[in-house]
Amino acid sequence: MSGTDSSQGGLTRRSFLKTTGAIVGTTAVAGAAYPTLTALAEERQTGQSASSEERISQGICRPNCFGGCRLNVHVRDGKVVKTSMAPYPDEKNNRICLRGISHPWRIYDPERVKYPMRRAEGTERGAGVWERISWDDAINEIADTFMRVQEEYGPQAVAKWSVSGNRGMIVQESYATLFNAMNASSIGPGVDMANAYGTARVTGWIGIWSSNGPDDLVNAKNIFLWGNNLTSAQLQEWHFVADALEAGSRLIVIDPIYTQIAAKADLWVPVRPGSDTALTLSMMNVIVKEDLVDKTFLRDHTVAPFLVRRDTGKFLRMSDLGIEPTEGPVNSATGKPTIVDPVAVMVDGSDAPVPSEGAANPVLLGTFTIQGIECDTAYRLLCDEIAQYPPETACDLCEVPPETIIELAHYAADGPVTHRCGWGSQAYDNGVHTAHAGATLAGLVGQYGFPGASYGPVNLGVYPGFNTKLSSAAGASTSKTVSIMDLPEVLNTGKFLGKEYPIKAAFVLEGNPLSTATNTNALLDALPNLEFLVTADSAMTDTARYSDLVLPIAQWFECEDVFGGRQANYVVHNPKIIDPLYESKPDSEIVRLLADKMGLSDKVFQSDEEWMHAYIDTPAGEKFGITYDKLKEAGVLGWHSSDPVIRWEGGVFTTPSKRLEFYVETPTLAGATAKKLDVEREHLPRFFPPAEAWPENEKYSEYPFTLLSERSMYMVHSQWFGTGWLRELDPEPTVKINPAQALEKGIDDGAYVECYNDRGRCVARAVYSEAIKPGTLVYPKNWQRHQHKAGSWSELSSSVYDPAAVNQSFMDVLCDVKVWDGE
Amino acid sequence: MATQRLGMIVDTKRCVGCSTCAMMCKSENNEPEGIWWNRVLTIGGEHLTTPSGTYPNLTMENLTVSCQHCNNPACVKVCPVGATYKDEETGVVRQDYDKCIGCRMCMSACPYTGVRSFNWEEPKYPIGIDTGDADVPKHQKHVVEKCTMCWHRLAKGLQPACIEVCPGRARHFGDFNDPDSEVSRLIREREHMQLLPEMGTNPSVYYLV
Amino acid sequence: MSETTQAAQAAKAPAAKFGGKGLNVGIVVAAIVTIAGLVLWGVQLSGGFVQTGMRNLDSWGLYITMFMFLVGLSAGGLIISSVPRAFGMKGFGGISKIAVWTSICCTVLAIGFVVVDLGQPLRLWELFAYSNLGSPLMWDIIVLAVYLILSIVYLWATLRFEGGKGSEKALRVISVIALVTAVLVHSVTAWIFGLQQAHELWHTALLAPWFVSSALVCGVALVLVVIIALRRAGYMELAQENVVKMVKMLGAFVCIDLYFFACDLLTSAFPGGSGTGVVNMLVAGPLAPFFWVEVIGCAITAVIAFVPKLRTNPLIVVGSLLAIVGIFCKRVQLLVGGFQIPNIDYAGVMTPYTVTDATGSLTNAYRGMVYWPQPIEFSIVLGVFGLGALLLLLGFKYLSLRPTEKSH
Predict the structure, then answer these.
(1) C207 with C326, same domain?
(2) N or C, which end of chain B has less CB nearby within 10 Å?
(3) Same structural domain, A615 and A742
(4) How many whole angstroms separate alpha carbon C198 and alpha carbon B195?
(5) Residue A85 dihedral angles phi and psi, to the nearest 5°
C-alpha cells in the first residue's frame, strides 16, 4: 500500500526497504551459502505423476484467448480433480494460466446449467423463472419453431448467433453445417477485426492476425507494443518477451494505461486513447524528414513508386497507356488464365513510364502528367499525408511530447523492429487506420520479412490442413451475415441492405453476445422482435438468462474435439475424458438431434468420428503427416518446423502486387453492411478522431471520461465469470479511476460508482489506480449483469463502426461517473 | 548424512503477477475457500496490479509470497508441541495438522505476514470435490497450515506444482546446498534478495531482482 | 470488572450477614454466567473461530489480551502478598490471603483465556506428550502451572500457619519461591511476545521487566479495590495506614511503569527509522485512545497516590481502577499494536480470512484498529470472568481468608 494518508505514514517505505534492503552481492552469498556438499542432488522433475486411483488424460483449453494450452486432466473417482500443464512437443510452447487451472471449479460449478430449461409461461424474458424440460421437449420446440419461422418468414428468419467461446472445431463446424443446411442467417460478431483488416489490406491476407512467431521476438532489437496488455490478454506470449528483454531487446509500450507490461518496459508512452494513428503518422514524418527510410525496400517491395491516377485514385496501369494486358499463368481457383496488366512507374532519366516489375531504380517521389493523366507516386501521396503531422502538431492530438515522438521514430527505424499492435488501439471507429498506419510505418523502414522484423497483432497459427469446406458443402447459403451492430436495426425494421429481411428466431452458441457485444440496450430494445431465442451454454450467462430456452452443453472435457492451434503450430486432439455432467450434451449431438427433427440428418455427420475423419484426413493434412488416427494416438501433432515463423520472407506479400500496399487501390467493405465506404479516405493511412471519445465531440462536455476496457487475468471474455477460485482473487466488478480525479468527484476508494451516458449505465466498485490516465476510466470486461449492483458495462458502449472493418468500437465511449445512489 | 536445502527462486523481472502459481497451489493442495498459501502481492498502490507514483511517473512490481522455508525458522522455535518443524533431510518447514493445537503461536512468530493461515472454520469446498493430488492431507478446522513445498510431490521426485506452471518461467526450484544446482547457479550469477533479512531467518526462497 | 462488581454486590450485605444470602446470590449468578460462557465456547468451537474477529493477519485477539492482563493481575497480587513475608517486613494488615486467593483466581482465568483461544482444546494433552521445551509458550505453560500450584500451596501453608500448624520459616521459604515464580511468570509471559522478532512493537528486551512493573501496578490496584470493598462490606477490618502504604506503592509502581514506557518510546522514536511508525501508531494512530487512557489514567493514579489530601477511599478506588484500566489499555496496545504494523503490507488477495475487515483494501483494514472483537468474544470473556467470580466468591464463602493477628 502506498499509505500516504495511512495513519502510520511512511510504513510503505519501511517495508520496501526491509524487503529490498537484502540485495546481496554474488560473492557474499556464494561464500556464505555453500558448505561444500556434493553428491546429494536428488534432481526433482517437473511434470505430473498419477497417484493411485487417478487417470491422467490430455485435453485442450479452448476459449478464444489464443493460448491453446494443453492440459493434463486428472480424473479420480470419475471426477476431474485437477487440470495441470501438459507439455507441447517443444518446451517453448508449454503454457498454462490460472484460468486453465480453474477447470475443476468450472466443471463442478454449482451454478452450471444442468438441464434443458424453458422460460416459465407468462414470465418476461430475463425474469429468471425457469421450468425444467426434457431434451425431447426442448429439441421438438426448437425444431418446430425454426421450421415454422422459416416457413412463415423465409429461410433467413432463423439466425445462427455465434461468437468465439469455444475454439473446438467440431462445435463451430457442426453448427455451421446445420445452419448452412437450413440456409439460415448468421449474426456476425464484429469483434476485434480492425487491426486484422487494417494490416491485411496493406500486407495481404494470410489468415486472420499474422506476424512473426512469438519465438522470433528475441531477434528484435526494438519491440513496440501498441495498445497491447500482453501480460494479461496474451499471457502465453509474455515469456518470449521476457526472453527478448533478457537478450537485450528494448521494449516500448504505447498505451494510455500503465499495464503490467508497461511496468516491464524500457519506455512507456502514455498516449491519448484513440490517437495512435496520429502518433504513427508523426513517427513517419520524423523518419521521412530525417531520411531514415529504407529506399531499397520502398522501391522493390512496396507500392511506393507506383503511379496513382489523380482522377480515379487507381494505379496507373500500362493498359491506361495503350499497352494491352497479356495472359499469365492459369489461376487454379478459377481455371482461367490471369490477366497481366502491370502498374506503371517512372524511372530516373526517362520520360516514359515502364512496368513496375523489373524497373530499375523507379522514382519514389514525383508528380507526373502522362498522356494527359495526372499521377503521383504512391509515396508522394503518403508523404503528403504524413507531412501534416510534424511532432509538434501530433503532440496536440496524441499528448506525446515531440521529443518522445522523435525518439520513438528513431527506435522504429533501428531494426530489427517488431511491432505488436494489440486490440486496444483498434477498438475505436478509426481502428483500421491505426493498423494501416502501423503496417506502413514498418514498411517505410523495411522492417518486414526477416528475423526480428514484423508488424502485426500476433501470429495466430491456424492449421491449414482442415477441410473447412465441409460445413459450406451442406447447403448453398443465400442468407446473409448481419453484423451485431446492424442487428438492432434489422430486427426493428425487418429490413437489411434495403430489402425485406425479417429475423425471427436465433440460436446462440459459443457466445454471450448480450454481455460481450456493445450497446446492449439497443439490442434489448430490439429483441422483442425476435420470437424465439435459444442459448446453448454451460453457464447462466447474460444471454442465457434472457433466452426462451437454455440447453446445457457438455464441458470441454466431456466430449471429443479437435483444435487447430493458437499461437503454437500444432493440432491438438481432445478426447472425451469424463461423461457429460447432469443432462448436458455435446454440441455436436445437439446438432444431430435438431437435424434429425428437421429432416436434415443427411446433411450432418452421424457420428463425431465420421466427422473427424472427414475434417482431418485431407490431402493437405497428409502433407503434414496429420490424420485423425495419428492425431488421436499422439494427442498433438505439429505442422511447422520448430523454427520461428517469419512472415513475408524476402519482402514478398500476398497483396495483388505482391508488394506492401500502403496505398490501397481498391478499399473494400469488411462484410455485408448497410453503410457506405468512403473510398477516398481509405486509400492511405489517415488520422481522424474517434467517432465519440474525443474532445471535439459535443457530448464531451457532458461526458468527460473515455471509458476503456481491459481484459483481466481473471476471465476470458465473459467465460469463468462465476468460477469461485477466480472470484476470490477478483470478487466483483470494478472500475479503475485516477485517485486525483476521484477526489475531485468526491469518490472514495472502494465506493460504488455509477458510470453512465445516454445509452446506459453500470455500477461497479471504484478502485483508485495511478495507472489510469486522467480523463479515462478503465473497467475489466464482461462481468455479468447479475454480478453488478445495477446495469452492465456493455450498456454504455455504442454501435458505431467503420464499414472498412465492421468492428465494434469497444473503447470509443464517453461517459461520466458519480457516486452510486443505490438506485 | 548430508542434507539438502530445498528452496525456490522467483525472478521478479519475469513475474507479472498473474497468480497462476497461486492458483496451481490452490488446486494442487485442495486449499479451501478463502485460503491461499501462495499469493501475488503488488509492490505499488493499494490494490493488486496498481502502481505507486503519480501518473505518468509510476512503478509497479510483483512479489509472490508463500512460506519462506527459512533455514532458521521462527515458527519452529515457538510451536509448543512441535507441530511445525523443519525436515532435517530437505530443510523443508513442515506442518503436522494432526498435532497442531491451534494456538497460532507460529502465525504470530512468522515475520512473513500472511504466509500462514488458520482454518477459521470447517474448510469449505463449494464444488463438493477434493481437488488436486490424492496424497495431500485433509484440511482440518482450527489448525494452522501453509505451503508444504508440495511435500507430496517432493516425495515422488517431483518439483512443487507452482514451479513449472509459471507463464513467465520465473520460478525455479532446487537444492541450495548443491553448488551445481540451477538455483545455486542463479544466485551466484544474478542479483537477488531475500525477504526481511534483518529477521535473521535466512529464507530458502530467493528473489532475483 | 465483573468479579469486583459481583463482589461489590455480594458485599452490600451487612457485615454480620456477610456470606449470607447476598453471597449465595452472587455465587449463583456467577455460576450461570460461567455456564453461559461454556455454552458459547461450544458455539465458538462448533461454528468456528470465524465468529471471532481474529483473522490471519491479526491472529490473536481479546482472549490473549485478557490472558496477558490476568497474568499481570495475578502476579501482581501474589508479589504484594509475598514480598513482606519473604523479606520479613511489616505487611499490609493481613491482606495476603485475600491477595493470594485473588491471584489464584486470576491465574485460573489466565489459563482459561489460553484455553478458549485454542483451536483444538482436545489436543491440550499434547502439551505434555510432545512438549517443545524451546517454545516460550511451553515455558509459560510450565511456569503458570508451577505458579498456580505454588500459590495454592502458599495459601494452604498460610492457612495452616494461621491455624497454628507449620513453621513461619517454611512459610517464608514458600513465599520466597512464590515471589520468584510470580516475577518469572510474568517475565515468561512477556517473552511469548518479546522474543518474536516478527513484531517490532514486541521485540524489546524491556518487555519482561516492563510486564513485571505493569503486573505490580494492576496487582496492587486490584488488591486495593478488593480489600476496600471487602472492608466496606464488613468482611474484614483493615487499618487505613495499610491502605495508604499500598497506595504509595501503587504510585511508585505506576511511575516505574510509565518510566519504562517513556524509555521504550524514546528508544523507538529516536533513531527516526521504522520505530517512528510504532510511536506514531500509539500516540496518534488507531491505538491512540488506548495510549492516552493509559498514560493519563496512570498519571492521575500517581497524583492520587502521592498527594496525601487525595488519598481518600473513593479516590483510591478511582485511582486503582484507573490503573487497572490503564494497564488493560496497555495490553490492548501491545496485542493489537503487534499486528497493526505488518512486515509485508503490499496489496494482495483479500479473503474473509485475511483480516478482520476484509471488505476493502489492506490499507483500509489498517486505517483503524486492525482487530476488534466480535460479540462472541466479549461473551466468552464474560463467561470466563464468571468462572473467576465464582471461584473468588466460593473462596470467600468456604475459605477463612479474613485477616488474623498472624496475617501479613
Answers:
(1) yes
(2) N
(3) no
(4) 12
(5) -75, 125
Is residue A213, in this structure, part of any structural domain at all? no
Q: What is the average pLDDT across B145-158?
A: 94
B17 touching A (Cβ < 8 Å):
yes
Q: How far apart are CA A392 and CA A140, in angstroms?
A: 66
Confidence (pLDDT) at B15 = 97
> Do A606 and A726 fall into the same domain?
no
Gap from A630 CA to chain B (nearest CA, Å): 28
User: What range defines the domain where residue A812 resides?
Assistant: 698-819
C261 and C359 in a single domain? The answer is yes
pLDDT value at residue A194: 93
Interface of B with C in 97-136 (CB under 8 A): 99-105, 107-114, 116-122
What's residue A38's pLDDT? 32
Q: Across B75-79, C21-25, C354-358, which has the greatest mean pLDDT?
A: B75-79
Chain C interface residues facing chain A, Cβ-Cβ under 8 Å? Answer: 273-274, 276-277, 280-281, 284-286, 340-347, 349, 351, 359-364, 366-367
What mean pLDDT comes out for the span A474-498?
Answer: 91
Q: Is A780 helix (H, G, I), strand (E, B) or coil?
A: strand
Q: Which CATH class is domain B6-208?
A: alpha beta
Instruction: Look at chain C and report how many structural domains it folds into.
Output: 2
Do A507 and A596 fall into the same domain?
Answer: yes
Neighbours of chain B (3+ CB pairs under 8 A): A, C
Going by pLDDT thresholds of 50, 70 and 90, the confidence category of residue A24 is very low
Those residues whose C-beta lies under 8 Å from the C-beta of residue C397, and which sit 6 or more positions away, are C19, C23, C24, C27
Q: Chain C residues with CB inside 8 Å of B120's CB?
A: 48-50, 52, 54-55, 353
- A617 and A508 part of one domain: yes
Query: Does residue A544 contact residue A113 with C-beta atoms inside 8 Å?
Result: yes
Per the DSSP assignment, residues forming a β-bridge with A549 are: A118, A534
Q: Which CATH number is A510's domain given? A: 3.40.50.740
| Residue in C277, C284, C349 nearest the CB of A728 | C349
Strands A734-737 and A761-768: parallel
Quick check: is C392 in a domain? yes
End position of a domain, from candidates A590, A607, A625: A625
Q: Which domain holds residue C281?
A: 53-342+354-373
**pTM (whole model) above 0.90:** yes
pLDDT given at position A33: 31
The C-alpha atoms of residue C213 and residue C253 are separated, in whole angstroms, by 6
Of C47, C129, C347, the CB nearest to B48: C347
Q: Cβ B45–A2 below 8 Å, yes or no?
A: yes
Structural domain contains residue A357: no
Task: State the best of B52, B75, B78 to mutate against chain C, taking most chain C CBs within 10 Å.
Answer: B78
For A112-158, the pLDDT digits (tens) are 999 999 999 999 999 999 999 999 999 999 999 999 999 999 999 99
Regarding an ipTM greater than 0.90, the answer is: yes
**Given B26, B159, B187, which is nearest A725 (Cβ)?**
B26
**What mean pLDDT is reported for chain B?**
95
pLDDT score recorded for residue A338: 85
How many beta-carbon contacts under 8 Å exist across B and C?
162
Taking an 8 Å cut-off on Cβ atoms, the answer to whether A40 and B61 are in contact is no
Q: Do C361 and A749 touch (CB under 8 A)?
A: yes
Question: Rounded CA gap, C119 and A216, in Å?
Answer: 56
Question: What pLDDT digit, counting tens, does each position of A251-307 carry?
Answer: 999 999 999 999 999 999 999 999 999 999 999 999 999 999 999 999 999 999 999
pLDDT score at B142: 97
Question: What's residue A35's pLDDT?
Answer: 32
Q: Which of A6, A18, A750 is opposite residue C343, by nearest beta carbon?
A: A18
Buried b / exposed e along B115-151 (16+ C-beta atoms within 10 A): bbbbbbbebebebebbbbbbebeebbbbbbbbbbbbb
Task: Count how many domains chain A has.
Answer: 2
In a domain, A180, yes or no: yes
Q: Are residues A731 and A619 in the same domain?
A: no
Per the domain annotation, does C406 fall within a domain? no
If you ran DSSP here, which 8-state letter would residue A362 be given?
A: B
* Mean pLDDT, residues B28-44: 97
Residue A796 domain flag: yes
Q: What would the grid cell of residue A602 be? A: 443427411
Q: Where are the domains of chain B?
A: 6-208
Give the residue from A2, A4, A5, A7 with the most C CB atoms within 10 Å of its CB, the best one to mutate: A7
Cβ of A770 within 8 Å of Cβ of B209? The answer is no
Same domain flag for C281 and C394? no
Question: Residues C227, C334: one domain?
Answer: yes
Interface contact flag, C285 A14, Cβ < 8 Å: no
| Chain mean position to CA C54 | 21
* CATH assignment of the domain containing C101: 1.20.1630.10
